[in-house]
């Protein structure tokens, strides 16, 4: 298995720290709103990574944090006159529902507010090792002058004005410009007891009573506190969207390597390129986003997964109606084949499946999870199977073998739907006939068939994955 490591900027063979065990952590959402399809790109991709590594025989321990305490949550809850912790709880639930609806079942979700003890422990370790200092009335900060390797992941040491994720902790008493907050102090009001913790919710700002003072975790610390608790100070794979390389992941390295003195904190760093909308990163702050919740009302999960996996994870992916239509057409092709395979006559002669889909698929995924190349293999397979089915050179045994190949692929990519729009057989025959004319570049005949199809109440559009058939709305 080869993957691209952001730390070394090269493709490397995966060699886990311990035998066949892989510990993987991916930055999860800040739960103050529904997640958008850009977030889902990252989550669907790592779902495939986890599933495929398991298939390759690795024992994968996959964790994703949930940021359920953060400035944005507090602000949004205040705007809605709600308690921030309750607000976060509600959106955490909606997030998990979206994940389930997208067929993502590989990570264990770990919320920050359930790991305050680990956060405090790590900040104390940083204080003891003289990496952290206090700014009275504000918080505990990391002193960047104490960590000479700062910048080794991103090649950067400073924030840029146009950074998409610019949650900079500003205070003119900071020792160095880039110092970031580890523990944010909050003024104490009325105290509450919740579970083992004393909690304060005055002014809508939750705070925990700890030896560091009343407060809440800084942005970067929850991830390393969580991973140190579950994995120890070093582990195998850390993933996220590319916006997190700097400053977030750089800060994570800084914190964990300083707290434990062990390096490297993480062996392989993997980053997903942006899903973009009208040439800009899709993001909540830009307001150019479409939520997964909305999209799931219009498209089956397989279409969304197909779309998200149709581009290489290290390349930007454009969000458009056209791209979603193409995905829909792709799913129709796959489903048509599965239907044909299910309906094959029992007593037919058995031909063999001439195309080794599984091998071609594995070759693509073992090379840095090249999903578009894997899709190429799937569509080559569909083409060849359709030819063999038309010429009756495949029988029941061959069909079973082909179905098994598709179900293997589906167990990793999740792109084969259980149900499909019922298309009358007469129309299916016309679509296939038209497809043949198109292949022969006989556009006059193919246009005639298009009109016939339209007269029967269906629209047909051509995409890179073949034709997309939709029922005309009456
Ligand atoms: P957030 O809730 O903004 O912290 O984002 C949650 C996850 O989604 C992080 O791993 C981000 O890097 C990732 N992410 C955010 N926006 C995009 C995007 N437009 N394309 C791909 N991944 C994204």
Automatic annotation (TrEMBL):
Transmembrane segments: none annotated. CDD domains: CysRS_core. ATP binds at residue 284. Residues 327-354 form a coiled coil. A motif ('KMSKS' region) lies at residues 281-285. It catalyses: tRNA(Cys) + L-cysteine + ATP = L-cysteinyl-tRNA(Cys) + AMP + diphosphate. InterPro entries: Cys-tRNA-ligase, Cys-tRNA-synt_Ia_DALR, Cys-tRNA/MSH_ligase, Rossmann-like_a/b/a_fold, tRNA-synt_1_cat_dom, tRNAsynth_Ia_anticodon-bd. It is found in: Cytoplasm. Pfam families: DALR_2, tRNA-synt_1e. Its main location: cytoplasm. Its EC number is 6.1.1.16. The keyword Magnesium does not apply. A motif ('HIGH' region) lies at residues 29-39. Its cofactor is Zn(2+). GO terms for molecular function: ATP binding; cysteine-tRNA ligase activity; metal ion binding. Monomer. PANTHER family: CYSTEINE--TRNA LIGASE, CYTOPLASMIC, CYSTEINYL-TRNA SYNTHETASE. Belongs to the class-I aminoacyl-tRNA synthetase family. This is Cysteine--tRNA ligase. It comes from Candidatus Yanofskybacteria bacterium RIFCSPLOWO2_01_FULL_44_22.
């Amino acid at each position: 298995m080869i993957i691209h490591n952001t730390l070394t900027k090269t493709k490397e063979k995966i060699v886990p720290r311990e035998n066949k065990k892989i510990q993987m952590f991916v930055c999860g959402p800040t739960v103050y709103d529904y997640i958008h399809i850009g977030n889902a790109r990252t989550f669907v991709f790592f779902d495939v990574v986890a599933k495929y590594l398991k298939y390759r025989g690795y024992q994968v321990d996959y964790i994703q944090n949930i940021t359920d305490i953060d400035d944005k949550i507090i602000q949004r809850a205040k705007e809605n006159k709600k308690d921030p912790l309750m607000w976060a709880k509600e959106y955490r639930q909606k997030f998990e529902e979206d994940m389930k609806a997208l067929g993502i079942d590989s990570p264990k979700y770990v919320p920050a507010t359930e790991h305050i003890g680990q956060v405090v422990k790590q900040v104390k370790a940083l204080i003891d090792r003289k990496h952290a200092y206090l700014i009275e009335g504000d918080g505990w900060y990391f002193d960047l002058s104490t960590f000479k390797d700062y910048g080794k992941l991103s090649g950067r040491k400073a924030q840029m004005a146009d950074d998409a994720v610019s949650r900079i902790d500003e205070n003119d008493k900071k020792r160095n410009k880039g110092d970031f907050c580890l523990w944010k102090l909050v003024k104490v009001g009325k105290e509450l007891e919740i579970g083992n913790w004393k909690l304060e919710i005055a002014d809508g700002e939750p705070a925990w009573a700890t030896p560091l003072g009343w407060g809440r975790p800084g942005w970067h610390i929850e991830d390393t506190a969580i991973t140190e608790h579950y994995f120890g100070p070093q582990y195998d794979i850390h993933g996220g969207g590319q916006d997190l390389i700097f400053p977030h992941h750089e800060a994570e390295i800084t914190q964990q390597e300083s707290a434990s003195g062990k390096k490297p904190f993480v062996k392989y760093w993997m980053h997903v390129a942006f899903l973009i909308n009208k040439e800009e990163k899709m993001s909540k702050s830009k307001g150019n986003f479409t939520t997964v919740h909305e999209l799931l009302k219009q498209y089956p999960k397989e279409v969304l997964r197909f779309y998200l996996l149709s581009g290489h994870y290290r390349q930007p992916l454009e969000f458009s109606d056209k791209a979603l239509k193409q995905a829909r057409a792709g799913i129709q092709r796959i489903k048509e084949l599965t239907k044909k395979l299910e309906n094959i006559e029992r007593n037919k002669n058995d031909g063999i499946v001439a195309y080794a889909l599984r091998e071609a698929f594995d070759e693509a995924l073992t090379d840095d999870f090249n999903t578009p190349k894997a899709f190429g293999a799937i569509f080559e397979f569909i083409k060849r199977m359709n030819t063999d089915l038309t010429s009756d050179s495949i029988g029941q045994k061959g069909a079973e073998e082909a179905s098994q190949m598709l179900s293997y692929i589906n167990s990793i990519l999740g792109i084969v739907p259980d149900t499909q729009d019922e298309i009358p057989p007469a129309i299916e025959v016309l679509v296939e006939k038209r497809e043949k004319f198109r292949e022969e570049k006989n556009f006059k005949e193919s246009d005639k068939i298009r009109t016939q199809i339209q007269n029967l109440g269906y629209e047909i559009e051509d995409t890179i994955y073949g034709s997309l058939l939709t029922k005309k709305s009456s």
